[in-house]
């Protein structure tokens, strides 16, 4: 925070903001000049700085002169952004009138200037100018009106046309039915969300979790219009399944419908445990269920498995496969044996393939996707969104390039329909015996782009590098947390006598590495933190000569080329008020460096 001198330019800016604030309209020019020039304090705040904190005494109010101020309720991971104040808007008057402590945080968004008025000045204005009291009443009445339910939008009554299918597919149908909401219009990354009953902050946070990179604007719609959408788009599907009877497949479908309806990402069924689901990054028990018996999980899941999957599970005690519950929902399933019996994890695969822009990904990923050849690696821990990012890159190619795309996955997750490109998707264990076998065959199948779901072993890595070296664009994943560890992991897979050749192949073919992790966002949902290595001639030489430890310095000095460090990204997310310091520390690889960046240690 900085106190600014009252220069003519700043006073003019403050006067301009006061011109459109109804509270100060009744003041004469002399009275307004007295408030701005002598009674008020003009302060500047950097992005993410707190102007007011919850619990602070109500000894002033303020007017936004320039920039924006987010009003954020709650603390830590339970924070929710209530609104964002623009130029000329005022905050803090309610606490001053009621003489109460602050009930919310006020945080600068971008470089922000405010004019701060002490409580005594505010009271003098109210006493000296009675009309100001009436202006304040009008402002409070308008605020109350905005918090009440707005009238039904004229475009979304019962006789209106239903939204386009591609808009409705943005939100799972079970979620729509459970909460009586529906996406009604989309424009780029803005979504108009219709609601029937009431739109509270918790529901809005759940929608933002489903669509983290879109701006959600709620609008009231008629209940009859919502029912019309459901009858046309959703058929007779129920969002409130009954578990009283039915086959194992029906029981699983019921649980999965509930998972989707709650906006969850994973369902965990474990022998000897109560069923749990992961919502907003947290694993929570599902109310109303008892512990599962040792063989109960397998009995529930067996009806949805292929015979060959059942046989493989019986032989190896684990199996991965995909399951399409209906035309709107797909899941990736891992079945395993543990010390208590049989357990399973269901990962919900979103029906919609988002664009790179909607995911908030940097421009360099689009440039990589448009490259004619080379190797692109997307890495990160399980659940970090690697598949979602790769799907967005493939979709960009599919929509913009006349080529042949071949995917090799275990299992197939996002389903791509051929557009400008021809798309063939193969599943390991169903269409081919292994990744390496499919890659060997790929060279005879005339692909331009090859997706390798996971580079699990030496042979698969070797074949992926060979495929890139022969003029193809190869996209693949690894479970690594940093760009440097990604390069080291690939090289270290090979015996010492082969490592020089592998370093040369990497140096010649690697386009870049995108390491990502998902962080819990303040107010609900998750936001990606990225580390990106963009290959250039100097970096290629470092890899070729075994000087990978120097890549960190090259990435730091080459950020103008698109390079990013994970700790830099995490620190920026904290400064912008998107994540907490604790969340940044928990996702950092170098905790000591992160702690210093956050000012927790010297």
What would you note in describing this structure?
- The protein contains 23 helices and 23 strands.
- With 602 residues, it is of the alpha+beta class.
- It folds into five domains: 2-147, Sandwich (Jelly Rolls); 154-234, 2-Layer Sandwich (GMP Synthetase, Chain A, domain 3); 263-349, Beta-Lactamase; 363-564, 3-Layer(aba) Sandwich (Rossmann fold); 566-602, no CATH class.
- Strand 14 (318-326) and strand 15 (329-338) form a beta hairpin.
What's the SSE blueprint?
Blueprint: E1 2-3, H1 8-19, H2 29-39, E2 41-45, E3 50-52, E4 60-73, E5 80-85, E6 90-91, H3 93-98, E7 105-118, H4 119-128, H5 130-147, H6 165-168, H7 173-179, E8 181-187, E9 190-195, H8 201-210, E10 215-220, H9 223-234, H10 248-261, E11 266-270, E12 276-279, E13 282-285, H11 296-301, H12 307-316, E14 318-326, E15 329-338, E16 341-349, H13 363-369, E17 374-379, H14 386-400, E18 404-409, E19 422-427, H15 435-442, E20 449-452, H16 458-469, E21 473-478, H17 483-492, H18 496-509, E22 510-520, E23 526-534, H19 537-544, H20 551-557, H21 566-575, H22 581-587, H23 591-597
Parallel strand pairs: 9-10, 17-21, 17-22, 18-19, 18-20, 20-21
Antiparallel strand pairs: 1-2, 2-7, 3-7, 4-5, 4-6, 4-7, 8-9, 11-12, 11-16, 12-13, 14-15, 15-16, 22-23
> Count of DSSP E strands?
23
- Ends: how far apart? 21 Å
Supply the CATH class of the largest domain.
Alpha Beta
Number of helices: 23
CATH topology of the largest domain: Rossmann fold
The CATH superfamily of the largest domain appears as P-loop containing nucleotide triphosphate hydrolases
Overall CATH architecture of the largest domain: 3-Layer(aba) Sandwich
* Low-confidence sequence ranges: 235-248
Q: In the residues, how many domains can be counted? A: 5
Fraction in helix: 25-40%
Range of strand content: 25-35%
State the shape: globular
């Amino acid at each position: 925070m900085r106190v600014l001198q009252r220069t003519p330019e700043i006073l003019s800016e403050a006067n301009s903001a006061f011109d459109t604030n109804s509270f100060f309209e009744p003041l004469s020019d002399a009275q307004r000049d007295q408030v701005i020039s002598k009674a008020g304090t003009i302060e500047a705040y950097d992005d993410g700085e707190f102007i007011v904190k919850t619990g602070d005494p109500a000894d002033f109010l303020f007017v936004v002169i320039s920039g924006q101020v987010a009003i954020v309720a709650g603390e830590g991971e339970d924070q929710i952004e209530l609104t964002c104040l623009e130029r000329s808007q005022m905050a803090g008057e309610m606490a001053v009138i009621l003489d109460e402590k602050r009930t919310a945080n006020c945080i600068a968004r971008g470089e922000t200037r405010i004019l701060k008025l002490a409580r005594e000045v505010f009271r003098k204005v109210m006493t000296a100018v009675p009309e100001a009291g009436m202006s304040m009443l009008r402002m409070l009445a308008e605020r109350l009106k905005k918090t009440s339910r707005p009238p039904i939008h004229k475009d979304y009554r019962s006789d209106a046309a239903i939204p386009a299918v591609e808009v409705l597919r943005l939100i799972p149908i079970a979620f729509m039915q459970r909460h009586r909401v529906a996406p009604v219009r989309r424009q780029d990354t803005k979504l108009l969300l219709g609601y029937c009953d009431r739109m509270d902050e918790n529901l809005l946070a759940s929608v933002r979790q489903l669509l983290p990179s879109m701006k959600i604007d709620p609008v009231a719609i008629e209940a009859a219009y919502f029912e019309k959408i459901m009858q046309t788009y959703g058929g007779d599907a129920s969002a409130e399944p009954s578990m009283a009877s039915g086959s194992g497949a029906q029981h699983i479908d019921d649980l999965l419908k509930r998972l989707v309806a709650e906006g969850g990402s994973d369902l965990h069924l474990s022998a000897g445990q109560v069923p749990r689901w992961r919502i907003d990054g947290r694993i929570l028990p599902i109310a109303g269920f008892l512990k599962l018996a040792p063989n109960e999980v397998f009995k529930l899941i067996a009806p949805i498995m292929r015979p060959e999957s059942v046989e493989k599970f019986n032989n190896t005690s684990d199996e991965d496969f995909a399951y399409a519950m209906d035309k709107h929902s797909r899941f990736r399933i891992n079945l395993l044996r543990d010390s208590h019996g049989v357990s399973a994890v269901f990962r919900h695969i979103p029906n919609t393939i988002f664009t790179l822009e909607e995911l908030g990904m940097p421009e360099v990923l689009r440039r990589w996707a448009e490259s004619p050849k080379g190797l692109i690696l997307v890495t990160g821990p399980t659940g970090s969104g690697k598949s979602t990012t790769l799907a967005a890159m493939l979709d960009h190619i599919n929509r913009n390039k006349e080529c042949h795309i071949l995917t090799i996955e275990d299992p197939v997750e996002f389903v791509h329909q051929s557009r400008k490109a021809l798309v063939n998707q193969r599943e390991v264990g169903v269409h081919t015996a292994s990744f390496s076998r499919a890659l060997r065959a790929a060279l005879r199948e005339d692909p331009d782009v090859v997706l390798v779901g996971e580079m699990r072993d030496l042979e698969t890595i070797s074949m992926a590098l060979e495929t890139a070296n022969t003029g193809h664009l190869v996209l693949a994943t690894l479970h690594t947390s940093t760009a440097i560890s990604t390069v080291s992991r690939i090289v270290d897979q090979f015996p010492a006598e082969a490592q020089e050749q592998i370093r040369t192949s990497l140096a010649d073919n690697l386009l870049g590495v995108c390491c990502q992790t998902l962080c819990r966002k303040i107010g609900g949902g998750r936001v990606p933190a990225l580390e990106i290595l963009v290959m250039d001639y100097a970096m290629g030489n470092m890899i070729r000569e075994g000087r990978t430890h120097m890549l960190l310095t090259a990435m730091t000095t080459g950020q103008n080329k698109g390079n990013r460090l994970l700790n830099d990204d995490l620190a920026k997310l904290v400064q912008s008020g998107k994540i907490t310091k604790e969340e940044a520390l928990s996702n950092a690889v170098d905790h000591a460096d992160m702690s210093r960046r956050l000012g927790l240690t010297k």
